[in-house]
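Milestone 3.1: sequence recovery, worked example.
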C-alpha cells in the first residue's frame, strides 16, 4: 500500500518511519521502494536563454568537471507566452530508493541516515539534487529551481570536501609554520601532532577527526603556532579560501568545524582555570 510522508528525501523517510514507531526490521522486510518527489517550475521554451556561470559555481552546484565544456544551462527571461514569468508549467524531480538486500541490511542495522543514503546511492539511487540537475542539463528547468527545491547531501558535495588531499608526515615534519600567511585548515586522520610556539610544545593533538589550523582561515591572520608531526601522521588538507563557501552552503560540515573549535576553546578555558587556581 503506497503512503505519503513529507521528508527531505527517501533515506530520511526511513528514519521518519522509525521515529513514528515502526520497527526497522519491519521496514527492512516489507518496504520495497521509497519514492521522493519535488516539483519545480518548468522554463518557458519560447523565451528561455543560456546563462553563464563560473566554473567554480558549477562545481559547487554539483556538476562534474568533465561535463563543463558541453554544458549549456538555461534561465528564465519572460515573454507573452508565459505572462512575462519565464516559467510555464511544472516539472517533477524524482528519487527512487529501492530496498535491495544491501539497503534492507542497512535499515535493519539502523545505520545513520547519511550512511543509508550512501548505501542507497551505491545500489543505484539517483539523489533528488542530482535528478534536478539532470533537468537543468536538459534545459527543462533553471539552476535556481533545482537548488531551491532540493537539498545537497554529502554525496553531492564538491570534491574538495569529499576527497580533500591526504598528506603523510614523518616525525618532526612541520605541517604549518608559526608566522606564515597560508590559510588552509586540516583534519587529523592518524598519528599525533604537536602545537609548538616559540620552540616550546604547548599542546598535542592525537584525537582522530580533530581539526586544526582553522583559526587562520577564519581570522585571516598569520599562524600563531607551528604544527609538527609526532612520529608518523596522516592529515587531510582543506583549502582555507573555501571556508566562507563551506559555512554558507554546507552547514553540516561547518557544524563539525565549529564543534572542534569550541571544544578547543573549552580545553583552553579549563587550562586557564587550572593555572589561575595554582596562582592562589
Ligand atoms: Zn516565455
Amino acid at each position: 500500500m503506497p503512503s505519503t510522508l513529507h521528508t527531505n528525501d527517501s533515506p530520511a523517510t526511513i528514519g521518519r518511519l522509525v521515529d513514528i514507531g515502526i520497527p526497522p526490521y519491519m521496514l527492512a522486510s516489507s518496504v520495497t521502494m521509497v519514492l521522493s518527489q519535488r516539483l519545480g517550475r518548468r522554463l518557458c521554451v519560447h523565451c528561455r536563454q543560456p546563462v553563464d556561470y563560473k566554473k567554480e559555481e558549477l562545481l559547487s552546484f554539483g556538476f562534474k568537471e568533465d561535463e563543463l565544456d558541453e554544458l549549456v544551462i538555461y534561465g528564465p527571461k519572460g515573454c507573452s507566452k508565459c505572462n512575462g514569468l519565464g516559467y510555464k508549467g511544472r516539472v517533477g524531480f524524482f528519487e527512487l530508493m529501492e530496498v535491495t538486500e544491501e539497503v534492507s541490511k542497512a535499515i535493519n542495522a539502523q545505520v545513520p541516515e547519511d550512511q543509508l543514503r550512501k548505501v542507497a546511492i551505491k545500489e543505484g539511487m539517483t539523489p533528488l539534487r542530482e535528478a534536478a540537475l539532470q533537468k537543468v542539463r536538459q534545459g527543462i528547468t533553471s539552476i535556481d529551481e533545482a537548488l531551491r527545491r532540493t537539498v545537497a547531501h554529502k554525496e553531492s558535495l564538491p570534491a574538495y570536501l569529499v576527497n580533500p588531499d591526504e598528506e603523510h608526515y614523518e616525525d618532526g615534519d612541520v605541517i604549518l609554520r608559526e608566522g606564515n600567511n597560508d590559510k588552509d585548515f586540516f583534519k587529523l586522520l592518524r598519528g599525533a601532532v604537536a602545537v609548538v610556539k616559540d620552540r616550546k610544545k604547548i599542546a598535542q593533538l592525537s584525537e582522530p577527526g580533530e581539526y586544526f589550523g582553522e583559526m587562520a582561515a577564519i581570522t585571516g591572520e598569520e599562524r600563531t603556532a607551528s604544527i609538527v608531526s609526532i612520529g608518523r601522521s596522516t592529515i587531510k588538507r582543506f583549502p582555507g579560501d573555501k571556508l566562507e563557501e563551506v559555512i554558507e552552503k554546507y552547514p553540516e560540515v561547518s557544524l563539525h568545524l565549529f564543534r572542534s573549535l569550541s571544544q578547543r576553546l573549552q580545553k583552553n578555558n579549563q587550562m586557564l582555570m587550572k593555572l589561575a587556581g595554582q596562582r592562589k
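Residues 217 and 242 are 9 Å apart (CA to CA). The beta strands are 33-43, 49-50, 74-75, 87-98, 165-169, 174-176, 185-197, 200-205, 211-212, 226-238.
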